[in-house]
Amino acid sequence: MHLIALALVAASAASAPPPASPPASPPPRTDALACTRQTLLDERGCTVEGRTARQPAAREQAVDNVRVAAALAEELCRIVAKGDALDADQLVLAACRARIAPATRTCAGDGSRRVLDDGGRFNPGFARCYAGLAELVRAVAADADVAADCCVCAADCGVTEEQCLARWHHGELGACVAEQCREPCAESLLLQRARTFAAAARKP
Description:
Helix content: 55-70%
Largest sheet: none
Radius of gyration: 28 Å
């Protein structure tokens, strides 16, 4: 009898469904996607998720936000204009600095939060500020690429770097550059054509 009872217990245990697994714990929060100075330099997607608590709005805070954003923009200009060289390209740097004021125009916020939290993450409410700085980085990176490749070749056409960058900004590198510097200026010429096409499309 004891053997039969034990057999029945064993059979019952074998046929019973396995105990339910405990619910998986949520993954730990990560800051890998938070918008920061580094994501600006890397030109990668991110989320505006800084953690500074909202405070009563203050004009002083809004003014300080613009100051902080402008200082960050200056740092970004220097880093990108320098690239792998020992010193920043002064013409590229000057062109970038001219963009700082427009790029940081929306960085004041409503004065209830700092633009960056203690961890260097952009706080909620500053997505447009981040976008302006991201556009500044893209523009100066394009200038740096043009100066390093296209403008070096353009010198053979008697075009100085300053003239080359000015013509690049206005979408006209010149016939000599287009003919003689097709390879080093290929990307610049492509963007120049895209600008010309876009401008023509906007005309009534």
